[in-house]
Amino acid sequence: MKELLKDKLTGQFTTVQFEFIEQFDELTLKFDKSAIVNVCAFLKDEDGLKFNFCEDVTAIDWATRKNRFTVVYHIFSMENKFRLCLKVDVDESECSVESVSSIWKAANWAEREAYDMYGIIFLNHPDLRRMYMPEEFEYHPLRKEYPLMGIPGAIPLPKK
Amino acid sequence: MQKLTKDDVHPKIVQALLGTNVHITIDDALENEMILNMGPQHPATHGVLRLLLRLDGETVIACVPELGYLHRGYEKMAENMSYLEFIPHTDRLDYISPPANNVAYALAVEKLAGITAPPRAQYIRMLLAELARMCSHLVAIGALAMDVGALTVFLWGLREREKILDFFDVICGARFTTSYTRIGGVASDVTSDTMKNIISFIDQFEEKFDEMERLLNGNRIFIERLEGVGVINKEDAIDLGFTGPNIRASGVEFDLRRATPYLFYNEMDFNIPVYTEGDCLARYFVRADELRESAKIVRQVIDKIPNGEVMLNSPKKVLPRKTEIYTKMEELIHDFMIVNFGINPPVGEVYHAVENPKGVLGFYIVSKGEGHPWKMKIRSPSFANIQAIPHLVKGQMISDVVAIVGSIDPIMGEADK
After folding, report:
1. How confident is the model at residue B35, as a pLDDT?
2. Which residues of chain B lie closer than 8 angstroms to A78, CB-CB?
3. What is the ipTM of this complex?
4. Would you kindly state where each structural domain of chain A is located, as residue ranges?
């Protein structure tokens, strides 16, 4: 499966640099965030790959690295029973990445959650609202600078 | 359900509900349409799920689910505690089947730490996970029947579930919040007496469940309330991230116990029930069939379970036994290090998903080699299943919303994390 993926992807995307990482029997594919929509659409539709199920979209806050965030996609191919992890780096100064919710509808809420928790903007998302926190909330709680105990007064009390 | 005024709903939610960028007050612009708030305190939402429904008469035109009323920030808490300390919190995710969550979490951490539990521990985990699945489906079927007006099945289902909870009490020391697994094994062994009791429970269960099914399968009201309601086809079900019994009711044979076998599921003989209708009734049938399959697996597990240790002997990663801590110096030191500084798995990232009663439960753990995870993400099945509610309820009557929510069996504990 790894060889097939490598062949198909490097054949289709000549300008994109792919980095394959294998760890704990899992295959991770790392590339530049500008290619995310094209690569995902290719992985979903290409014969022999058919990654039709998007399990999860989330982000990692590395706090001190140059590219502060990494957006992580877990996709699964029901045909091949194979799971793939996609990773793109996102910098804090340009904290956005194209949404893949047009490819997998399941990514819709997962991206909303990542936006809520990390403040990463998913461009062209149909409904980018906060998932869990109230709309008035100013912070993104899973960022490393947000304290575990919360910030007093950050969540407004409900109106009487 | 109460009618809303414009102060009750956030403008962004109204915008999502109406599908356009409008600046309106809800009272005037909707003339014939109405926005109705269902939940978060509505008894048929199975927890604190809030649905905003846009209605034309009694027909639902659009629906926007609102989550977050049970958000406890487990992912943030996980970053600040050791791997062992997080086990009790996994009980509170899908609180209808806590042992299944314990197992899922323990497997993810063990994969990261590069250790495997002894065979007997893995069989016990399978036993507990299948009993938890039976628990969960009994509640799901009972609650669905209750939502559409048949109360007896709920009581009968909870009576059977109570017997399973008694086994949890004997095995884990707690009926409900079991916290039973440890990194590298399970907390205590299961005695052969308990296993005998489980077998005799399974023997009488199949008969009792036949009785329950007779109440429902011949019940015209129950069938007519569910048949053809909330239909979702195969493609949409995959696209929307449906998992568990819900996707198998839409004709997709997808079960992680078969697709990516973990524990000893590849040695078990069981069927994956699949129905193609994709409606609420099919989802009920899948759960009913899975109950029988789980009972079958429980029998096989007890039949095949090997003797041996239930905790791995790996001093740097696995807690030593209490008797040894009290008598031996080495074990005391290891216990001190593990409890105070954690098990320090290698640097890396791991994603492990298992088939929980509600669907695919995955843990994504990022480790920097410290005693606590750098990041932990919980992929919860109910979260993705609730995402499909707007698709399912569109065009249905308002009374069907209750049946649809009951049939996909969401648990807010894991949807809100």
Report:
1. 81
2. 238, 252, 254, 259
3. 0.91
4. 2-107
